[in-house]
């Protein structure tokens, strides 16, 4: 007689096979463009997106903040959707996509950095959901138990990650989750708009202190933070299913909505630009504690994605580790980190993510879409190569240019950048006083350098590509 755990494993394998990092065969790709629009629309919204939108005001006036939100979303969603398209074509996770350009061992570096950011995001999401759940429980039941709620959300989100993306999208998001999220967001939006003096908000002057293009960076970084994850999910899309459009428009719509909603909560309801301030404003003046709980339930999908992709990134380095065991470990580590988390450095955390993954996206896009015309040979994805040092050069230069344009990080790191650019190279620091932002200069430089440097090397896969149906046919999932 089989045990309960064995029966559960068989159900999970039937409903949501975990494919590790090998190409997903076409007959196992079940997600449509609409599925991906639902998934990325859901992942683009949440409490932390509203908190980031709240950071833009009142330093910027609302019209300028709204322009930064729309422009930053349009810019940031483009590389997100393009890497998702590559994942749809090749059927492999994001970190495996980086192997042909960086080398097998070279891809370990973005895998490690991605693991760090995902464990960090997991802790931030757990902490935020625990805080907001505690706000709701105090208002509804008079119960102050933040550690209990933190533990509960950690368990729920980890179980979702064990289920995997197909199970979450088909069985949770499309049946329940997306309706809870959209319904609660519509209610909050309606309450804010009904109670606000929109004319006064539109005319209210900016207080200054945040350059416009740096505000754009704070918007760009949110879709960019998902870039190292996007192919982990889009690889399950049916070929030709419209995954690019679903990813781009789904994420853009939700990102614009919730950034703008966060800014409005500050200007109309006097919310503080942090999780507690946003949660309290919703509970007291924008829908009540029940709506806050509904929004909280929808937020669980963001943490699910962080945990699941942290496991997949680890498998790029150690493929034989079981995926579901890794998700459990990541969830546990995220919970422990959340116990000691502080919101003080959230903005710096966001910009550090941008400085790493904006230039990496540029290097990949130059190699994949220009040099290889949007196809990799499967041998290039799985050949035992070392490190392509030439590809690291434009990535490193783009990273440094980001920090020259918008100095970000601990005080010691910023001082090191000042010493490099100002004292040694005798250049202005920061570049143009950060008025140009950092994302566009960093991306443009890394992309242009990649076109020049990578053209002169024969590294990476050739233009031919075997069909996944032939090369991966009959392949069993890896746990």
| Broad structural category | mainly alpha
How many structural domains can be distinguished in the coordinates?
Answer: 1
Residue fraction in strands:
under 5%
CATH superfamily membership, which one? Hydantoin permease
How many E strands?
0
CATH topology: Hydantoin permease
Protein model, in words:
About 70% of the residues lie in helices and about 0% in strands. The protein is mostly helical and about 475 residues long. The longest helix has about 35 residues.
Write the topology of this structure.
Blueprint: H1 4-15, H2 33-43, H3 47-54, H4 62-90, H5 94-97, H6 99-102, H7 108-141, H8 146-163, H9 165-195, H10 198-203, H11 212-226, H12 230-234, H13 243-269, H14 275-285, H15 289-317, H16 323-338, H17 346-371, H18 378-382, H19 389-405, H20 411-424, H21 439-455, H22 468-471
Offer a few descriptive terms.
22 helices, 479 residues, Hydantoin permease, globular, 0% strand, mainly alpha
What's a concise summary of this model?
This protein has helices at about 5-15, 35-45, 45-55, 60-90, 95, 100, 110-140, 145-165, 165-195, 200-205, 210-225, 230-235, 245-270, 275-285, 290-315, 325-340, 345-370, 380, 390-405, 410-425, 440-455, 470. By secondary structure, the chain is mainly α.
